[in-house]
Amino acid sequence: MRIGVDLGxxxxxxxxxxxxxxxxxxxxxxxxxxxxxxxxxxxxxxxxDTEAALGRRGSVGIGTPGxxxxxxxxxxxxxxxxxxxxPLHRDLESVLDRRxxxxxxxxxxxxxxxxxxxxxxxxVMFAAILGTGVGGAVAFDGNVVAGRNNIAGEWGHNQLPWMxxxxxxxxxxxxxxxxxxxxxxxxxxxxxxPDITVYEDRLARALAAIxxxxxxxxxxxxxxxxxxxxxxxxxxxxxxxxxxxTSVDIAVVPAKHGDSSGxxxxxxxxxxxxxx
Length: 276
Known about the structure:
Helix content is 31%, strand content 22%. By secondary structure, the chain is α/β, with parallel strands linked by helices.
């Protein structure tokens, strides 16, 4: 049995998968606000309750915003700032009393969708989370690439491309910079924006910059904003203004497994070798 945990800014979700990939149980709870110790306890409680309900022990994979620093072993780059600078991997192994695997939440989304989701069979895919924060991940031939510094795909902390005069210098970001894509495209930013066509153009600009670098076969959107159906008709058309090509042939699609795709990917960290 494989257990996946998605540690989000507002909720923590757990899923248990059987060896054939079928779902056995799924639960979610609110994320404790700005409390690291309570977050560890909440994850441990979800895993323990899941195992008690199913009567067996499983492997555990964790998807989290941010990434583990390859040098210090501490979590970095999380928009849940209480996690930054903490030995999250080590502490979770301690409270769960086992080895775990941990990966960026967008990488987990990409793993799920490249394995049996909207990007199945795609040679190059880009996965984007549009939620409390904005994350991204890259996969080639079904293999998710974490990168040398564990930051591959982190488009959310580049500046919004082709900024208009009235957008400069952009909102301040928790990372210390201004005008980050995340500040314009996260879920709260969409809620603040009265004109959704403005949001769509910003998303088109941000994705076009990715296309100009990766030229992926498919872009998969996850997170709460991915449920806005009109994005899939309007954004690809708007991207044509910014992509460096006379024609643009690229699919922008929602995650096949919905807003729970990332937690499936977390469970799939065992025994997968597709995350590099």
